[in-house]
Design a protein that fits this description.
mainly alpha; single chain
Length: 175
C-alpha cells in the first residue's frame, strides 16, 4: 500500500511557471538591449495620464507664449507645433502597433501555457482522485474486516461466558 501519490513533490520545489519558460523570449517587446528597453518604455508611456497632462500643458504654454508675443518662433497657425505633432505621430504609431502585436503574441503564448498548466492540474487531480478512491476502498475493506473480527470476538465472548457458567454449575452441582 502506497502512502503518497506518484506525482507528489514538495510544493516549495515546484516551478509553477514551468509552462511559461519556453515563452520567456517574448517578454521584452522590442528585444533586450538598451534601445529596446527605452522604446518599450516610451511606447508604454504614451497612454498614461502623466503623458497626456504633460503634453497638454506644453501645448498650452507653447500656444500661449507664441500668441501673446513673448516668443515669435512659431506664430499662428503654429506650423512648427503641427510638425512636432506629426513627427510624434510618425514614431508613436509604429511603436504602439509593434507593442500591441508583440503583446498579442505574449498573450497567446501565456494563454497556451496556462492551458497546459490547467491540463496538468486536471491530470494531477485525476491521479489524486484515483488514489483517494483506492484508499477509500482499502478503508472499507479494513472496516469490514474489523466488523467481522468484532463479531467473532463477540461470539467467542458469548461462548466463553456460556462455558464459564457451565463450569460454575458443574462445580456447584458436584459439591
Amino acid at each position: 500500500m502506497k502512502n503518497e501519490t506518484p506525482d507528489a513533490k514538495p510544493t516549495a520545489n515546484r516551478n509553477h511557471f514551468r509552462h511559461h519558460e519556453k515563452h520567456r523570449h517574448l517578454d521584452p517587446v522590442f528585444g533586450g538591449d538598451w534601445f529596446a528597453l527605452k522604446a518599450e518604455a516610451f511606447a508604454r508611456f504614451f497612454g498614461t495620464p502623466i503623458f497626456l497632462v504633460s503634453q497638454t500643458l506644453i501645448v498650452l504654454i507653447w500656444i500661449g507664449l507664441n500668441a501673446a508675443g513673448v516668443f515669435h518662433f512659431d506664430v499662428y497657425p503654429f506650423i512648427l507645433l503641427n510638425l512636432a505633432f506629426s513627427l510624434q505621430a510618425a514614431y508613436a504609431a509604429p511603436l504602439i502597433l509593434l507593442a500591441q502585436t508583440r503583446q498579442a503574441d505574449r498573450d497567446k503564448a501565456h494563454a497556451d501555457a496556462d492551458a497546459m498548466h490547467r491540463e496538468e492540474l486536471a491530470r494531477s487531480s485525476e491521479i489524486k482522485m484515483a488514489f483517494a478512491a483506492e484508499q477509500a476502498e482499502q478503508m472499507l475493506k479494513l472496516i469490514q474486516q474489523n466488523t467481522e473480527l468484532t463479531e467473532i470476538t463477540k461470539n467467542l465472548s458469548v461462548r466463553i461466558e456460556a462455558l464459564t457458567q457451565e463450569v460454575h454449575r458443574k462445580i456447584l452441582s458436584d459439591h
